[in-house]
Amino acid sequence: MKNCLVAQSGGPTVAINASLAGVIQGAIDSKQFDKIYGSLNGVQGLLNGRLMDLSQKFEDTPMFIELLKKSPSMYLGSCRYQLPDYSEDDAPYAYIFNKFEQYDIDAFFYIGGNDSMDTVDKLSTYAKAIDRDIKIIGIPKTIDNDLCITDHTPGYGSAAKYVASTLLEIGHDTSIYPINSVTIVEIMGRDAGWLTGASVLARNKYNFAPHLIYLPEVAFDEKQFIKDVRTAMDRYNNVVIAVSEGIKDAKGQYISATSAVEDTFGHSQLSGTGKCLEYIIKQNIQVKVRSVEINILQRCAAHMSSITDIGEAFRLGRHAVEVALQGKTAVMVTAIRKSNSPYSVDMGDTDVKNVAGLVKHVPREWINDVGNDVTQEFIDYVYPLILGEPVVKYQRGIPDYLDISHLFPNKIGE
Amino acid sequence: MKNCLVAQSGGPTVAINASLAGVIQGAIDSKQFDKIYGSLNGVQGLLNGRLMDLSQKFEDTPMFIELLKKSPSMYLGSCRYQLPDYSEDDAPYAYIFNKFEQYDIDAFFYIGGNDSMDTVDKLSTYAKAIDRDIKIIGIPKTIDNDLCITDHTPGYGSAAKYVASTLLEIGHDTSIYPINSVTIVEIMGRDAGWLTGASVLARNKYNFAPHLIYLPEVAFDEKQFIKDVRTAMDRYNNVVIAVSEGIKDAKGQYISATSAVEDTFGHSQLSGTGKCLEYIIKQNIQVKVRSVEINILQRCAAHMSSITDIGEAFRLGRHAVEVALQGKTAVMVTAIRKSNSPYSVDMGDTDVKNVAGLVKHVPREWINDVGNDVTQEFIDYVYPLILGEPVVKYQRGIPDYLDISHLFPNKIGE
């Protein structure tokens, strides 16, 4: 028998470890692999020989799979390493494939976003060029939900649930004073507005926040924005605005890049998008205004994940093993939505070239005409993805996650 | 029989509604009051006649008390109204006491922080001056935990749990890259470091974050700070720093006030404390650095509250009713710690003058000598307060909280 290898790349999500758990469980259940290796810090682990025996971990650690499914961030760590074009520099390829040989790797699973799919593409192209039979499979993940072909990406549903819940809680928080106020909430998403749009799910029979939603898919117009805020203030005391960090003006320039601020040392500092909108409002409207950046919490708050998301992330991991055992390579596994009500998805796969380096945007028709809200189509799309809550185990008052000390081999945090 | 009145003031916490629930349950169980009125937006509701019949709400809404205990922010709204000295202007006093008369109010419960206790003090002093027999009782709340006499304040334990859990999740998030990085996490607390200190509870057998903790109780020294960060970087790849928004230099000036930034309009903008430390590190150390402001989430994330905190907030509400029925006035109810292990508290009360306008700081001996961490005494103090998790009900994928549309009477959000 042969072995398989799995690695993670890109930014953290709360579901990426569930996909890793799916790969491990799938590989063990298949009985087709002797060992399951994890490469620490993406492909870098291969380059510097930092591999972890996950089959051993599975045997040694009770509840390993269950804990892994619920632990945030990346159990195997990440990397920012980008492979060169092999026609220009094949040294790292030769090194990596030498390692594949050395560890008898028959299948390599890479969990990540569109940059990681580029790596899957490059490695599988190289394998073909040197006629090496190894299955290289991509497994999608990103809170940004901007991968093509797949209906959605693991990590998105949980982040969407966190964003919607947080907006509801901010709705409660801002409602306490009977005076006008504006609260701007900046949400992650440089290129696509999927996550910011999910804030719409905070609305219920009494909570109308967020009252305005701005996505990068529509050019941001300052005059229209000021008009929108004034109109909202006529209707609501405490206006809450959800905005993507990546909104751009009609020329395609990031709004955050248009209002650099100078610190006391005279250095220009990019202020965030939320801060920019705060300045715009302060300049134009007499009202109490503040901005809130949800920041990295939206991608690491595993205590509030969507069980739909975690379950699908796990299924995609398992499915990747099946796909590899079918002999496929150079593909990314995908979720295919069969029905919204009852919600159901099938697992599929696609040529990784359909995904690598590409971005899926929110369709323009899922955003209202004036560009300050999303439509019912968007709601119908995202709603099923946030449903269901896992039982979070707490230990000493804080969530009980999996030990990640193997990520710090050279420092005291071992 | 007579009636009683309850109101909330100051900033939101996730436990202040549990104290309200305790007052309602206590008043109903005592059978000593005909009606329980809630004043909307603190004492302002009395001034503009916006009272809510909570006894009716209790009868009409199934699970009212249970939902109220778990809903964040302030069911009755808040206000920033400060009473004048009655010797200078007794008009609002005359108006308020006229309303007390009109609604046959025998006891007034005011849930809030040290400013609200000042209101309790002023109202009860006035009552005495005009020889009016009404019991005016303060119930503490604040995530800042800076009220005197009481061992701790409702709202603090839940915020502390949220901060500790978030720091653990940030610890996971920052661990994924095998390169040096510094993450600064700014936590609420203008005057006292109780909440920032609670971040220490994020540490466990594998997570050493936060590696440095800075509280307002110790003068912040930039040189020492740079030295601390360098030392931490020798030991850990990814250094996480927890800092109170209210840290000050040796002259008592807020650090955030020392580095105003100028926006593109040429206006000076106060940047946050976290941003200031970010600039300091960028100026002095070559390392990837970012700052995260937990912001209002730490006071409104009811989906992660401490059941110890919620339970005590409820008990203090009930106890306030008992104290009023004993004929006391001008007091604030208090939690008295009997034992740490097993943890237990008694309920007591104190003259509100011992609390009004005063601030309780973290004892200097609960902070290490060099001023960059807290001691075991601090841990022993805060640990029991974050224990226990309530069952959070979710509806359509987001937490199910109590409808607060009564707070928006004049706008469309009714």
From TrEMBL, chains A, B:
Site residues by UniProt (Important for catalytic activity and substrate specificity): D115
Metabolic or biological pathway, per its Swiss-Prot or TrEMBL entry: Carbohydrate degradation; glycolysis; D-glyceraldehyde 3-phosphate and glycerone phosphate from D-glucose: step 3/4
Activity regulation, short description: Non-allosteric.
Binding locations of Mg(2+): N114
InterPro entries: ATP_PFK, PFKA, Phosphofructokinase_dom, PKF_sf, PPi-PFK
Residue positions of the active site: D144
Catalytically driven reaction(s): beta-D-fructose 6-phosphate + diphosphate = beta-D-fructose 1,6-bisphosphate + phosphate + H(+)
Site feature (Important for catalytic activity) residues: K141
Record-linked SUPFAM superfamilies: Phosphofructokinase (SSF53784)
Keywords: Cytoplasm, Glycolysis, Kinase, Magnesium, Metal-binding, Transferase
Sections of the chain in a coiled coil: none
Described function: Catalyzes the phosphorylation of D-fructose 6-phosphate, the first committing step of glycolysis. Uses inorganic phosphate (PPi) as phosphoryl donor instead of ATP like common ATP-dependent phosphofructokinases (ATP-PFKs), which renders the reaction reversible, and can thus function both in glycolysis and gluconeogenesis. Consistently, PPi-PFK can replace the enzymes of both the forward (ATP-PFK) and reverse (fructose-bisphosphatase (FBPase)) reactions.
Similarity comment text for this entry: Belongs to the phosphofructokinase type A (PFKA) family. PPi-dependent PFK group II subfamily. Clade 'B2' sub-subfamily.
Protein name: Pyrophosphate--fructose 6-phosphate 1-phosphotransferase
Organism: Eubacterium segne
